[in-house]
Amino acid sequence: MTNEPEEIIDEAPEPVLPRLGLREPLTPVVDTDDALARACAEISLGEGPIALDAERASGYRYSQRAYLVQVRREGSGSWLIDPIAFPDLGELGLAFGDAEWILHAATQDLPCLAEVGLRPASLFDTELAGRLLNLPRVGLAALVEHYLGMSLAKEFSAADWSTRPLPEPWLEYAALDVEVLLELRELVLADLKAAGKDGWAREEFDALLSFTGPPERKDPWRRTSSIHKIRSRRALAIVRALWHTRDEIAADRDITPGRILPDASIVSLATHAPDSFTALKNDPTMRRRGPRRFLDDWFDAIEEALGLPEDELPTSGQRSDGPPPPRAWADKDPVAAARLVRVRAEVTRIAEQYNVPAENLIGPAIVRALAWQPPSDLDPASIAEELRERGSRNWQIELVAAPIAAALIDP
Question: Residue 217: its pLDDT value, please?
């Protein structure tokens, strides 16, 4: 018996896409009144929509302010504007007029742009458009690859944009982000029209015009990483006290909270609960110079939490007016659990039929709310009104109101 050698099949390597580079020379950062006036004049003379982007320093600063604003318009070129150099950018907003803004992931940039006096009259979000088209990846680099056949460098996306002066490679990266948006808009819009989804997109974009930021979280300290390891209400009180103390220090110094005291250190301190200043000072979490600078603050927070009466300690679970987690429904309300299964199945079916992600068809939180406590009237008109009150757009309501109404009825 002989052993035949296995056939070796050569797999073709993935094609290496050409790297996208600047099509025009990089212009100096706009950081003087004269330079801003010139930029505004040039932009106001341009034509068509305005590509816009903003860079923040989320991993370094407490605030979500913009540290660089990039603008591009046909006929005016690209402009990199330092918003820190000006009281606001209202003058730039006047130059924009009623022109449509093109943004990628608009909800990330709209709040910080509003802070400097920039608010759109209309907009086009290339990321949201990609979601409506059900593209497998919708990041800017992925869309550039999909539509332009080019690779887009993203190595500076997490850079500290509060740095001054900004290095030239960072500025090139920032300029590229808006250079591609004008062309992407046209290509994405053509696909939306071909799929019959351009009307959907317009409703979604119009809804974004009133976006001011994510809703404020109740008890944000409960999002401390690894808080699930905490086993007592007293230890939870220490987490809460340390979290709020850290947040005040971070806001005052405009430093991201994790650089003041990591979440892991908060959980460790809450677990061990050092009961003296010396014990805290010698705790392993205080070895680094950063946390040691605020020893007095940490000790005051821990001491306050240790002194709280029992009835003021936080509960182990966050109270909520909404439905419980779906995993608990079968025990708490089997009928509601069955409704949730039926409604989710209908949403999945419709999403597949229209080739759109289920979460863009209807928010998962709305599905849970309707299944947990349906309206008294389960006719499609009543469900449509309920969806409208919860922020659903007309195109979504037209697709899901009647199927959800039918799914909510116990068969």
Answer: 86
